[in-house]
Amino acid sequence: MKLLPFAFLIALAAATVGTGGCTNRPEAPTMEDPIVAREDAQRITADAIDLDKRGDIDGAIAGYQRAIERYRDLPQPWYNIGVLYFERNMALEAASAFRTAAELMPKDPRPMKALGDVWAKQAYYDEASKYYLLALERDETDLPSLRQSILADHFRDKRGEGTAERIRRALMLESDPKWREFLLRQKQLTERTLNK
Predict the structure, then answer these.
(1) By Cβ atoms counted within 10 A, which residue in 82, 139, 162, 186 is the most buried?
(2) Do domains 34-106 and 109-196 have the same CATH topology?
């Protein structure tokens, strides 16, 4: 048995309490079932994903916006619309969508990593680094965040113990030869910096 949401119980109580025999009482406000709203938003999101796969980016964005209007607490349309805004170089809109997704997915590193990508694309590597590190607080083994945090350190020419530790973790996880080569080079540069 599922518990009813508290707001639904309040509305139910308001609708059933007598008014001393008055027959002209206003009707109680109807409360929409949040489960139905969430399911509708999930369906709309799935449709938007299909539009995105078919190349209808405008239709996908409109779909994600409808899903968000239907149920604001569903993280997937926020994240997905952020990706589409990012691809269209709409940095402010992308960052806003990713921030909301990060709030709705407090353990998932992807929205924080995406915020880092927004800043990195604008060549603000200090800000980008901050978000990559926040992503790694959520999952210290998230390889995309590890890669990007090390890359941001490279662009900032800032290497320290934190960089060395992230390189160690990344090398344990990395299988792509190009990334491994980059990481090994960063390992050498970081060790040289630390040994000065």
Answers:
(1) 82
(2) yes
pTM equals 0.81
CA–CA separation, 152 vs 163, rounded Å? 10
CATH class of 109-196: mainly alpha
Residue-wise pLDDT for 28-80, tens only, equals 445 678 899 999 999 999 999 999 999 999 999 999 999 999 999 999 999 99
The upper half-sphere exposure of residue 82, i.e. CA atoms within 13 Å in the direction of its Cβ, equals 23
The tokens of 194 are what? 């630390």
Report d(CA 3, CA 76) in Å as an integer. Answer: 25
Q: Does domain 34-106 have CATH number 1.25.40.10?
A: yes
Q: Which residue has the tokens 């999101």?
A: 45
Tokens for 121, please give them: 């694309």
For residues 124-140, b (16+ Cβ closer than 10 Å) or e, as one string? ebebbbbbbbbbbebbe
CA distance 29 to 44: 26
Distance CA 3, CA 62 (A): 34
